[in-house]
Amino acid sequence: MQVGFGVLGPVAAWDGEGRALALKGARHRSVLARLVAAQGKAVSVERLVEDLWEVPPDGAVSAVRTFVAALRRAVEPDRAPRTPARVLVTEGRGYALRAPVEAVDAWRFEAAVAEASDGLPRKVFDTLDAALGWWRGGAYAGLDERPWVLAERRRLEELRLDAVERRAGALVALGRTGEAVAALDAHVDGHPWREEGWRLLALALYRSGRQAEALAVVRRGTGMLREQLGLDPGARLQELETELLRGTVDEGRGAPEAVWAQAASSLDGSVGPRAMLDSTVGLLRHLAVTGPGGLEAAGARRIEAIEAAEQLGDPVLTARVIGAYDVPAVWTRSDDPARAARIVAAAERTLTALGPKASAGTRARLLATVAVESRGIGGARALAAAREGERLARDLGDPALLAFTLNGVFMQSCHRAGLAPARDVIGAELTGLAERHDLASYEVLGRLIRMQARGALGDFAAADEHAAAAEALAERHERPLARVFTAWYAAMRATATGGLDEAEAAYRVAAERLAGAGMPGVERGLEPLALLCKRIHYGLSIEVDERADWGPYRPWVAPLLALARGDRDGAAAALDTVPAPPPDHMLEALWTVAARAAIGVRHRSFLERASAALGPAAGELVGAGSGMLTAGPVARHLADIEAALADS
Predict the structure, then answer these.
(1) Which among 217, 238, 404, 591 could bridge 202 via Cys, Cβ 3.0 to 4.6 Å?
(2) Is 98's pLDDT higher than 80?
(3) What gap in Å lies between CA 130 and CA 569, rounded to an integer?
């Protein structure tokens, strides 16, 4: 019997037949809700106590264990005594909810929103219409307004509002404008700051033949944003007003969705598998740059397309399917290392299968794929593939191919510290190449690379220009993920040049923008590492947050955390086993964080390693080449390392 759990409304649980389960009191529901919010991860008893009570009573830990025991009896009434729980499981010093995604309404809702990002209006509408029907009220209704509850409510409400707008946009694309107007009228009334709601309402009115009302809605929305909220309307709303005045709306936004839907519906069984795979990769390439759900969905479908092509036994087709996905990549850590490894292996198999028959262009694309998908791993093969792909592309004189291969070179440009100037050269060439040949996505990439590189060199005037240019391009060409990186750059810059309060506020904005962006390789562990580096830069004491998820960065952070707890022996022991950081954007930052612990305990061998590794970056800011964080000038830390070596 599969138990269901609900937090999109009052916290509830149901048995396999949909009957409500008795969850006892408010604290029991709060415990269950907190485990739902953790999305399958364990939550320690101490954290549960902190999240349940502002001032925990005596015996709070025992009370939490009592609540969990009662919840277990409710959700697993047939479990035999003294047998392990299967749903609310014990993990370490805490508990976790083990349930499939479809059994928890919030998890299922998030999955549905991601699934509805393939750009086909019919599927978007059907998926989101069903998902929005799962809401029974406000998220986590009836719970005390503890900080974690408020954060989860905000997050889920933002997803819900986005889903409402995307559902309405699908209705407009499908020609069901009357339904869209009815839904959006109430939406903008209740959420007047949602600019996209105003834009879609005006578009739906226009498509219904109500041009004057459409223009009035745009002006009402613009006026409300400016006068009541102090915000300037974005480019999309302003462009729609211009199009309405000129009567050119159907030639602009909105028409593409209808064309796409009509073209997709025209496909039938006469289309062969090779043609389907070729066209699918083109779709995925565009899907990957349109937003969080698109990026995630495109990555999953891409590996399926590659493996389907291999099953047909046609290496030429497989090479096209692999190489046509020239989606710019700016972050040197993979979102899905296992999937990336499968893609690299497929590219290598295809190179071998084609042998000398492969054209130079095909070889270049496959080699660039190896380089891009080997990000954060490096090694001689990946670096050689990047360089050979670039050489072939230059010989061919193909601008789009050269841009793709330069992306591979960039992905392999963190194999040692101090390479920000080299990355700046790559970014400059990409920007110029893209400007000359209308390669919008690569122009955004070039600007972001230069933003990172100039920031690493402390040239914030130039970095600011590239950040602003990237944002303008992203707005014009609908590349929303670029703003994730510019927001984090703003936080890093605030750390380097502003005050502590300014930096903390900027990081809050950046973290909100990154959450749910579909980039786990960027997100996991980033916020706590950025805040740690900020404290190092300002010379503040290190605070140990046992709840923080350090993700892939824990091995390099662990010695400093041990030292902050007063465990000098533990810090020294951890330094004995700390490996060299991976060749990615965080190379200098991780060397520096671990080196601060080595300075504290005078760990001579690690200090010598860190000095040699960081030396080439003496003119840079620690970690600023990531465009995400900084711990101040590398030279300052090198001086501290040398002083510690002299004392050891």
Answers:
(1) 217
(2) yes
(3) 56
